[in-house]
Amino acid sequence: MLLGAAMAGQVVMAQVANPKDSRQKLRQPAAPAQPAPPAPKKDERPQPSAKPAPAGAAVEFKHYFLENVKVSVANGRMSAECNGLPNHETGTFPNRDNPNYILQQNYRWSIPTQPQRASKPSATPMGPIGVAINGIPIFNYKNASGRDAVKGPFAEVFDSCCGHPDPRGAYHYHQFPKCIKSPFKDDPTQHSHIIGYAFDGFTIYGIRDKDGKPPTDLDECNGHFGPTPEFPNGVYHYHCTETFPYTLSQYRGVVSAMGGGGGGGGSPPQKGPPSKAGPPFKGGPPPKKGPGKGF
After folding, report:
1. Is the pTM of this model over 0.85?
2. What does each C-alpha distance from 20 to 13, 15, 16, 208, 293 come to in angstroms?
3. CB contact burial 184-214 (16+ within 10 A = b; e otherwise)
4. What is the largest CA-CA distance in the chain?
5. Run means of pLDDT, 10 residues per run, the chain, 295 residues
6. In sequence order, which ranges of 45-153 are alpha helices (DSSP H)?
7. Residue 37, exposed/middle/buried by CB under 10 A (0-12, 13-18, 19+)?
């Protein structure tokens, strides 16, 4: 390298071609060696591609509960704690159709973060079968006598947010909860957003599919596989529907102990003054005072 550098800067005298010619001719200097290209700047250097995560590696779990629900995640399960008071206005309870008060609860729901598909569907029980993102339990279609609680001759009365309290004072939904204060902008031409979780871990969505219309390919559990706003690559999920069974009718996934509380009737009405139901809901349809049909 030193030799090359020396030659590049050396001027060599040529031999005199004609002794009578006193002028000295210079040989053309050797062409300098091409300098090496400058090293790329640090932020321009090609970086090695990231190694793919090994099979079975843990993936960070993201939940969609609202701020009034305290959530912790550990050992493949999500714990959701709340007081059971809705984050929207409610009808007046008790009333002539429902003698129950809305009372504060002490819920702690335990939900798997990686739901596993069961070999066959299993029936949903009486009482809570899932929980909405505002911490309010979701019941199946049955009333305390096992009949359709939403429509028909045995239908119960709901407020305009589609909820009501049971004899334990637990406010709950049997159908799509219209007044959930979702953190997402709701576009009626697009797929619904998550409105809750079933106790098998699969998500529950509103009434719209990817084209903004009700899905037409739901299975016997009221669910299907497809893309959603939160899972664009596709995921199995349940839908609420305006027709029977209104929410999930069976569990598609494996269900283990889920904790929680509430129930489907049987105990006497709770005594005491009505509880405050949290801050008023500022979006969506204004709730009517007094009872109202859900849809």
Report:
1. no
2. 17, 13, 9, 105, 123
3. eeeeeeebbbbbbbbbbbbbbbbbbbeeeeb
4. 134
5. 41 40 47 54 36 46 92 94 94 95 96 95 95 96 94 95 96 94 74 95 95 94 95 96 96 76 35 40 35 34
6. none
7. exposed
